[in-house]
Design goal:
The protein has about 40 residues and is mostly helical. The chain has one domain (about 1-39). The chain has one helix at about 10-20. This is Four-carbon acid sugar kinase N-terminal domain-containing protein.
């Protein structure tokens, strides 16, 4: 499964990332707008 999350601040993004990791989902957190497609 792939899941994308858009958060309005770093704290909210970190909260959801930690929840996903604790439940076994590999997670990557990006800060800012990526300049290339991330796969």
């Amino acid at each position: 499964m792939q899941l994308g999350v858009i958060a309005d601040d770093f704290t909210g993004a970190t909260d959801i990332a930690s929840f996903l990791v604790r439940n076994g989902m590999p997670t990557v957190q990006l800060n800012g707008v990526p300049t290339a497609i991330f796969r």
